[in-house]
Amino acid sequence: MYGLRLESIAFSLGPISVHWYGIILGTAALLGLLLAVQEGKRFGLSADFFMDLVLFGVPSAIIGARIYFVAFKWDEYKDHLVDVFKIWNGGIAIYGALIGAFICGYIYSRIKGYSLWRIADICAPGLIVGQLIGRWGNFVNQEAYGGPVEESFLRNTLHLPSWIVNQMNVEGVFHHPTFLYESLWNLVGLIVLLVLRRRSFVRVGEILLSYFIWYSIGRFFIEGLRTDSLAFQGASWVESLMNGLWSPMTIVFEHGYLNPAEGNVRISQLISVVLIIVAVTLIIVRRKNGAAKEHYSDPIINYKTGLPAGVQAPEKTAVQTSETARAKIDPPQDADSSMKE
Fold first, then answer.
1. Would you give the distance in Å from CA 88 to the centre of its chain?
2. How many CB atoms lie within 10 A of CB 108?
3. Per residue in 195-228, pLDDT tens?
4. Contact 175, 147 (CB under 8 A)
5. pLDDT above 50 for 335
6. Which secondary structure element, helix H or strand E, spans residue 301, and what is its range?
7. Helices 206-223 & 178-196, crossing angle to 10 degrees?
8. How far, in Å, CA of 142 to CA of 2, rounded?
9. Would the pTM of this model clear 0.90, i.e. be above it?
10. Cα–Cα distance between 188 and 238 in angstroms, integer?
């Protein structure tokens, strides 16, 4: 049975091993890029703009994801610092990736002269594509799975193919394929975002905020099934609140095991709840105070040039440049000053 599981290494080139995890993440980033490039054309943004953004954004996301994960697992890494860099073995956190990506995105957008809201709106469907594909890296690595289930549940209830069922057999115990649940949830979310961005009522920033709402709802409930959640020791009322919000799931599922030594509150669940509240609040407040007066379909204006994206400022001729320089050196005198002389 164990021999049927997929290997984490796709192929080797001499001493160099290429892992499926890296191939899957690279594919996710590429498809997310293509989706953003295609939408960016509608607004006059070049493919190079998004290629450069990905060039800086992907490393920033990976670094942020790894820092986030290691920070909450420091006791496991402090005596093995080399393992911090072994991301091909898994151990990156999506929320950390988002933090790293958005810090990079903010800096990049400001340098280029665009609003982060506008660029993030275009990139949001690409982000969710990256996540729905990236979760299959967890599948290959046999990580981020849920609590134990019967093999019959996977085969007869979920009707999963054998190659997925076999991979969910970890040391003789079958587990919830939470990677698959989240991947399918994100697939539906992608469709929702693609439909929303063609609706005339959608304002600037609301595609991004809708992404956060959709992803966080799914992540909250799926996270409760997992057995490897990052956790902390929170107040009893926070624990009760998280368990209460998740309680509808108990009709069908059981909570995934959470090691009491690591904490009583799943960090991703708490962050999901906070993100949903913040995103909904921002949509309401930005509409009321006029911050979201622009619609998603409106032209994207470069605040450095004052022109729509893709429109180049007219170049000054040599004569115009000379006249401008002369005016700065020898400003014209008004009529009154001439008469006084």
1. 19
2. 19
3. 999 999 999 999 999 999 999 999 999 999 999 8
4. yes
5. no
6. strand 301-302
7. 160
8. 12
9. no
10. 30
What is residue 233's three-state secondary structure? coil
How confident is residue 129, by pLDDT bands cut at 50, 70 and 90?
very high
Give the torsion sign (CA, 60, 65, 70, 72). Answer: positive
DSSP type of residue 175: B
Q: Which helix (H) or strand (E) holds 265?
A: strand 265-266
Rounded CA separation 24/12 (Å) = 16
Residue 187 CB: number of other CB atoms within 10 A?
Answer: 15
CA distance 215 to 220: 9
What per-residue confidence (pLDDT) applies to 326? 59
- The position carrying tokens 């001493």 is 15
* DSSP secondary structure code for residue 94 in this structure: H
Q: Cα dihedral angle (188, 189, 191, 197), rounded to 10 degrees?
A: 170
Question: CA 58 → CA 32, 52, 120, 127, distances in Å?
Answer: 11, 10, 14, 11
Block residue for tokens 């191939």 = 23
Average pLDDT, the chain: 88
Q: Which residue has the tokens 């057995």?
A: 227
198 marked among binding-site residues:
no
Domain ranges of the chain: 13-323
Helical H runs in 197-266?
206-223, 236-246
CA pair distance 68, 94, nearest whole angstrom: 9
End-to-end CA separation in angstroms for the chain: 103
For 26-77, what is each residue's pLDDT tens digit? 899 999 999 999 999 999 999 999 999 999 998 998 898 888 888 877 777 8
Is residue 28 within 8 Å of 134, Cβ to Cβ? yes
Pairing between strand 307-308 and 9-13?
unpaired
| Total residues found in the chain within this entry | 341
The first and second tokens of residue 336, run together, are 């009154």
Retrieve residue 47's tokens. 């493919």
Name the amino acid, one letter, at 17: S
Q: What angle do CA 139, 104, 32 make, to 5 degrees?
A: 45
Residue for token pair 């115009």: 320
d(CA 140, CA 271): 26
